[in-house]
Design brief:
- With about 325 residues, this protein is of the alpha+beta class.
- The chain has a domain of about 150 residues: Cupredoxins -  blue copper proteins (Immunoglobulin-like), CATH 2.60.40.
- The chain has seven helices and 14 strands.
- α3 packs antiparallel against α4.
- The longest helix is centred in the first third of the chain and has 35 residues.
- It is elongated.
- The N and C termini lie far apart (about 75 Å).
Length: about 325
């Protein structure tokens, strides 16, 4: 049975399309070539990323400030992007060649070939090799994220093909982060009475209190940690599943009610770094930011002492405003 359309049979439509491809083969090849040629320039046209938050028109990662994020960036930019770029270029060229070479006009008598052993072996073996190349370093990157430092184990850092070359001290600070609809509760578990809740500032509150911080990411009280210090983060939730994620740190872990998950980070640069809940958790999921203020060790000691003696509001006033 032949399906009919307003302009004739379906077969006729495909025949007209094939003729059009044959007549326009120069244009097709030119378009594909232009896209391939412009790829590096479009990549270079990206805006410069920054640490702590995303910027307009950014397509890559935020700048890394931890060994975990170093390994993620090296794995993505040094392995995955090269592999996928080569695959896309190869498939694009192959598709353009097939459109031009094997349309009805250029190739009126179709081949009756049903299989080719060599090609079938190649398209089976090559993807396996590609997956192995991807899998081997990815296991190390994942293990670094899941393994809390003990002072002896070495971490990959920017060299994902090493067996570990970055020394990392054992945690000096443990923080429990509890997700609540729709805020975060923080508890410095080694210090008596050092716990507080962190809420997103409304537009009016942000303009009045913290005008230099980004909308939807500024909070009333930031989590404060010392620089160059390994911090263990215990993550849980009080109601539904949330997720604790800070892109510049390379951490993202589920907060599950009744379960205590762990992650860690060691930040090498002072500043303020933002994240968000990354698990759909209800109507205000989009308004549950994470703000981490990284200060010097002396500043942290003074902040913590003030926190324990006079409360979180007095401690927050000690820190210089973000410029």
């Amino acid at each position: 049975m032949v399906l009919k359309s307003k302009g004739g049979s379906v077969q006729n439509i495909f025949s007209h399309l094939a003729d059009l491809c044959a007549k326009s083969k120069t244009m097709i090849v030119g378009v594909f070539a232009a896209l391939i040629a412009l790829f590096p320039f479009s990549a270079m046209a990206q805006v410069e990323p920054m640490a702590g938050q995303a910027v307009d028109r950014q397509t890559g990662f935020q700048l890394s400030v931890t060994p975990i994020m170093d390994s993620i960036v090296a794995f993505h930019d040094g392995i995955l992007m090269w592999i996928i770029t080569i695959i896309v270029i190869f498939v694009t060229i192959l598709l353009a060649y097939i459109i031009v070479r094997y349309n009805k006009r250029a190739n009126p008598i179709a081949s009756k070939t049903t299989h080719n052993v060599l090609i079938e072996v190649i398209w089976t073996v090559v993807p396996i090799i590609i997956l192995i190349v991807i899998a081997v370093p990815s296991f190390g990157v994942l293990a670094d994220q899941q393994t809390i430092p003990d002072g002896e184990r070495k971490y990959l850092g920017s060299n994902v093909f090493s067996f570990g070359e970055v020394d990392m001290p054992a945690p000096e600070l443990t923080i429990k982060a509890t997700g609540v609809q729709w805020s975060w509760d923080y508890d410095y578990v080694d210090y008596e009475g050092a716990d507080f809740s962190s809420f997103m500032l409304s537009d009016e509150e942000r303009l009045a209190q913290k005008p230099n911080e980004p909308r939807l990411l500024a909070v009333d009280y930031s989590l404060v940690v010392p620089v160059d210090t390994t911090v263990r983060v215990q993550v849980t939730a009080a109601d539904v599943i949330h997720a604790f994620a800070v892109p510049s740190f390379g951490i993202k872990i589920d907060a599950v009610p009744g379960r205590l998950n762990e992650t860690w980070f060691n930040v090498r640069k002072t500043g303020i770094y933002y994240g968000q809940c990354s698990e759909l958790c209800g109507k205000d999921h989009a308004f549950m930011p994470i703000s981490v203020r990284v200060v010097t060790k002396d500043e942290f000691a003074a902040w913590l002492a003030k926190f324990q003696s006079d409360g979180i509001e007095a401690a927050a006033e000690m820190l210089p405003p973000i410029s």
